[in-house]
Write a structure and sequence with these properties.
Length: 274
C-alpha cells in the first residue's frame, strides 16, 4: 500500500506542472487575472487557441512540421535499423572500428560553427533537407537497434541464407517485419525529436520553411512584447505561452499511448542477458 501512495505522490508532483499549463491555456482571461494561481481550471475558453491559428503562418508551419516529422522519422528509422542490423553481424568487416566511430559522437561533437559550415558546404542551407538530413541518425538509437538485432535468432537468418536470400533480402523480408518493438520505439523517439526541433530550424532555413515550434515561439514573443507595450491586446503572456506549449504537446500525447507498449519493450532491450 505504501508503494502505491508514494507512486501516486510522485505522479502528482511530476504531472501537475503539465496539467497546470493546460489549465492556463483554456482559462478565461477574467478568471486568470482574478486569481493568478489556480489548483483547477476556472472556466473554459478556446480564445487563445483561436488566436494562435488565426495567424496565416501557423497552418503552413504545421504542414512543414508534419512533413518534417513524417519524412525525417521514416528516413531515420530506416537508416538506423539498417545500420543497426549491419553492425550486429559479427562477420562484418571493420565492424569494431565502425562501432567506435559511431560511439564517439555520443560523447563529443564538432561544435555549432563547424556543424553549420558542413551543412552549408553540402548546399543544404535554406532547403527542406536541412531539417531532415543532418540529424538523421542518432548514435544512441543506433546502438539500441544493434542490441536488438544481436539477440535476433541466428537460426532464422541462417535458414533464409540457405534458401538463397542475400543480406538485403534477409533484412527486408525476415528481420524488418519482425522488428516492431524496436522500430516503434525509435520511431516515437525520432518523431518526438523532429516535432519539437527548434534551434537548428530557426537558423538553417528561411521563414517559409520554419516548422511550428519556431513560428509559435515567434508569435509568443510578439504577443508578449505587445502586452508589455500596452497596445491593447487582452492575451496575457502566461496564458498565451501556455496555449502555445499545449498546441505543440497535444499531438505527442495523442500518439504516445498507441505506441507505449512497444516503447516499454524496446527500451528494455539489452537490459537483461540470458
Amino acid at each position: 500500500m505504501a508503494i502505491y501512495v508514494v507512486l501516486t505522490l510522485v505522479f502528482v508532483i511530476a504531472a501537475y506542472p503539465f496539467f497546470y499549463v493546460l489549465f492556463l491555456a483554456v482559462m478565461p482571461y477574467e478568471n486568470y487575472v482574478r486569481m493568478p494561481i489556480h489548483a483547477w481550471p476556472s472556466g473554459f475558453t478556446l480564445l487563445y487557441f483561436r488566436e494562435i491559428f488565426r495567424d496565416p503562418r501557423i497552418v503552413h508551419a504545421f504542414g512543414i512540421s508534419l512533413l518534417k516529422t513524417g519524412v525525417g522519422t521514416a528516413l531515420s528509422v530506416t537508416t538506423t535499423a539498417m545500420a543497426g542490423f549491419a553492425l550486429s553481424r559479427r562477420q562484418l568487416k571493420f565492424g569494431r572500428v565502425l562501432v567506435i566511430l559511431f560511439l564517439v559522437p555520443m560523447f563529443f561533437n564538432g561544435g555549432l560553427i563547424p556543424y553549420y559550415l558542413v551543412i552549408r558546404m553540402l548546399g543544404l542551407v535554406n532547403t527542406f533537407w536541412a531539417l531532415v538530413i543532418p540529424g538523421m541518425v542518432s548514435s544512441f538509437f543506433l546502438f539500441m537497434a544493434r542490441a536488438y538485432y544481436m539477440d535476433f535468432p541466428q537460426e532464422v537468418i541462417e535458414a533464409a541464407v540457405i534458401d538463397g536470400a542475400g543480406q538485403f533480402g534477409v533484412f527486408w523480408r525476415i528481420v524488418w517485419p519482425t522488428s516492431t518493438p524496436i522500430l516503434a520505439t525509435i520511431a516515437l523517439l525520432y518523431g518526438t525529436g523532429q516535432w519539437n526541433d527548434y534551434f537548428w530550424p530557426s537558423i538553417l532555413v528561411r521563414e517559409n520553411l520554419h516548422p511550428a515550434p519556431v513560428i509559435l515561439q515567434s508569435i509568443s514573443n510578439t504577443r508578449s512584447v505587445l502586452q508589455g507595450l500596452g497596445l491593447g491586446t487582452r492575451l496575457t503572456p502566461a496564458s498565451f505561452v501556455a496555449a502555445v506549449a499545449a498546441t505543440l504537446v497535444i499531438p505527442i500525447i495523442v500518439v504516445y499511448p498507441l505506441l507505449q507498449r512497444f516503447v516499454v519493450k524496446g527500451i528494455m532491450i539489452g537490459s537483461v542477458k540470458g
